[in-house]
């Protein structure tokens, strides 16, 4: 058995994490009674009602007044009516509602080094954790959390933000699925939310796999996720340098299908490289000269053992070691039990498998098997720091913890 340390961290879904959304009944007849009601109020009455709304909700959100005005404009065809500013806000408040982004679950973490590594204790590294949050209607969004891992592998999470913000779309392209999103610098990272914006992802942004990508002296963060519109899934790409400005684009090509695409952190022989799972059961690998176009793939690894027989897939981007590319995988066996394992790929020719574990690295224990989706351990990424592999993982889609394992312990047990 590989020595592995499970931490006592338990990060759970928090229903109090809410954003504001527009409430649209899709029926003009539902708007008219509200307009008539507010129109008949005196300015004092309208002001008092609006004041009560602010007293109850303003401490939970940024820029609530602007939200109310925006939602007024969405409901009233001619926003230049004779409504006062107060009455416009009051009408807008009737067509605004809170949405609890974590009402159902919080799971499937990804982890990358933070772009700001200043002011840390000796040997420590600051990281960013991205998480899949699921709310009413099973809509998935992406939330963030920061923390520090010490030189000896201790994980310390920063407090979560009290208020959330979904940023602002600053640009969109003709294909509708592409857009740019910006957050203000004074909005804390732990309060930023990537919530579905396009029709392609209207039912969820699922299982984001971030990687810290380096090329020609420059560093980027690329994230692959599954966009779901309620009927069709499609891999999409997120690009960012600072976690303030995000570019969202769909992948193209015949190989950009199914779930679980994960990029290598650097080009291989001058080409982008990606781990995938076309067909739903086997690991695949693909290469491309273009970041967004993926036309061909080849089989990389197929299930061989009883605990992986149903299917296998990657759990994030590979880690580079002196022995090869280390790929954290998930495997599914009888009773849909998900376990975690490792596969080693050749450094220069990662289409060649050098070895894989004969037994799972991590299998759900008595606590970890109970939850929203039983018997599932899953993650979307890991990092290496001072010889330790830091693995955040979800326990049956109900809470998140961390596991720590030494790189050399894993490499010693990988079998060809």
Give the CA-CA distance, first to last residue. Answer: 17 Å
Share of helix, binned: 10-25%
Regions with little confidence, pLDDT below 50 for 5+ residues: none
Structural class by helix and strand composition = mainly beta
Describe the structure.
By secondary structure, the chain is mostly beta strands. 13% of the residues lie in helices and 38% in strands. It has helices at residues 32-40, 43-57, 64-75, 85-94, 407-413, and strands spanning 5-6, 11-12, 18-22, 96-100, 105-113, 125-134, 140-149, 155-157, 168-172, 179-182, 193-194, 204-215, 218-228, 233-240, 245-250, 262-263, 272-276, 283-288, 298-301, 311-314, 319-321, 324-332, 338-345, 353-356, 377-378, 383-385, 388-395, 399-406. The strands form 6 sheets. Strands 1, 2, 25, 26, 27 and 28 form a 6-stranded antiparallel β-sheet that branches. Strand 14 (233-240) and strand 15 (245-250) form a beta hairpin. The protein is elongated. It starts with a strand and ends with a helix.
Topology at a glance:
Blueprint: E1 5-6, E2 11-12, E3 18-22, H1 32-40, H2 43-57, H3 64-75, H4 85-94, E4 96-100, E5 105-113, E6 125-134, E7 140-149, E8 155-157, E9 168-172, E10 179-182, E11 193-194, E12 204-215, E13 218-228, E14 233-240, E15 245-250, E16 262-263, E17 272-276, E18 283-288, E19 298-301, E20 311-314, E21 319-321, E22 324-332, E23 338-345, E24 353-356, E25 377-378, E26 383-385, E27 388-395, E28 399-406, H5 407-413
Antiparallel strand pairs: 1-28, 2-28, 3-4, 5-6, 6-7, 7-8, 7-11, 9-10, 10-15, 12-13, 13-14, 14-15, 16-17, 17-18, 18-19, 20-22, 21-22, 22-23, 23-24, 25-27, 26-27, 27-28
